[in-house]
Amino acid sequence: MTTFKIFNSLTNKKETFIPIDKNNVRIYACGPTVYNYAHIGNARMAVVFDTIVKFLKYKYSKVTYVSNITDIDDKIINKSIEEKMSCKEISDFFCNIYNQEMKELNVDKPDFQPKATEYVDSMIKKIEILEKEGSAYYSNKHLLFSVKDFPRYGILSKRNKEQQISGSRIEVADYKKNPEDFVLWKPSNKNEPGWNSPWGRGRPGWHTECFAMASDLLKTPFDIHGGGLDLKFPHHDNEIAQGCCFQNKKNDESSYAKYWMHNGFVTFNDKKMSKSLGNIILLKDYLKHFDGEVIRLSLLSSHYRSPLVWSEELILQSNKTLNKFYKILLQLKDTKLKDGEKQLPSEIKLCFFDDFNLSKVFAYLNSFIKEKSNSKSDKKIKAALLSVGSILGIFQKDPADWFKKQEKNQNVDIKEIEILLEKRSLARKQKEYILADEIRKKLFDLGVEVKDKSDSVAWNWINKK
User: How many CA atoms lie within 13 A of 26 on its CB side?
Assistant: First the structure.
């Protein structure tokens, strides 16, 4: 029997996935901090783990998926001051938008989507136990986790002490006993949200939120903990430290979560997408021009552990790929399938079993559609497309409706853009720079930003906040 293998970030190797309880596979993935519109990086995490969960639900009888919402954070507080709105109004507004946009990407809502503010009492109780057991200490109105109490700290990120300190998000505070110690509870100012606690009015540290919510909703140990690669350190290292010390299992890092999975960064113009570089790409700007399935397929176009190079060429290619397969489904609209026939072909199932090797999945789909048409092969092709689509979150629309929407909302825009880009390229070659600038202005009016490189031209939708 073929085994199902995933890459475990904790051990840095592929391992056979053996659920703790095959009758209820439990998975947690860190969700967004809701103070702004979702960007492509947020979307990649959501799509990757939604796809993983869809496959787990295909394979196992029951899967419980939890992905949280951080609705209390310094960024949210700053946004509330800036917009003169309450933190709840800010977080509720952007949480609703996030869920609406994820729905457009065919991301199913998690079985549980807890908000941090709903679990503050639980966090306080868990922090009290950590303090009682000697894993936390009080200093300057803060309660901090003592990393020295967990000798295996950094087991996930594999960072040494110097790297842990240099990789911290903020400069080292003078009230810490050790530079790598992290905040479990901090004081709130009068104009900031806060809760009463044994350490005074304040709010929990970010790293405690997921530890509390995952422990409460899934119990420990649970099967899989996931998130973006940027969360490995310090967030996930800190979760493991709290989870193990809370259970007094300091020598068993898998006592909190058995497997860890991380999706790769999104890069743009050869650089990692980040707020500091000002190259954040908002999802909403792409949903204006492309169907959610096009964006979803783009986000799945490289292996989930690899970096994803975001470009307009990528999204246009994803659109062409979907058109190709939807055309086949349109041709097979009269081919009927029974429920038992909507199963993954064995060749494709093996690809999913190999740590979600989706490039091979599409290689097999391409080979299937080249088969000579007959009633048997037509059923095989349609079954393969629909079963794969149910896991990857694509091919979910009626093919006829798909092409109607393509014609109505997209083709004219893209065709016009490509014509203008070609005219501008020719103008630049002929050194007609005034004409080239005029075309650039036309493209800008269409919502397109042009970036000239030494040997090519890149373009993307303008990020309009």
Answer: 16
Residue 446 has what pLDDT?
80
Task: Tell me what the pLDDT averaged over the chain comes to.
Answer: 92
> Closest Cα to residue 169, out of 253, 84, 276, 268?
276
Tokens of 279: 């190259």
297: exposed, middle or buried (Cβ count in 10 Å: 0-12, 13-18, 19+):
buried
Q: Name the range with the highest mean pLDDT among 236-240, 370-374, 411-415, 441-445.
A: 236-240
Provide the 3-class DSSP secondary structure of residue 77. Answer: helix
Q: Which amino acid is at 250?
A: K
- Given a cut of 90, whether residue 160 has pLDDT beyond it is no
Quick one: which of 5, 106, 104 has its CA closest to 51?
106
Per-residue burial over 377-408, b if 16 or more Cβ lie within 10 Å, else e, is ebbbbbbbbbbbbbbbbbbebebeebbeebee
Run of H or E including 29: strand 25-29
Tell me the two tokens of residue 166: 């240099």
97 vs 338: CA distance, rounded Å: 37
Nearest to 224 by CA among 28, 457, 429: 28
Asked if 209 and 195 count as a contact pair (C-beta separation under 8 A), the reply is: no
Which residue from 104, 117, 113 is spatially nearest to 38, judged by alpha carbons? 104
Contact 49, 67 (CB under 8 A): yes
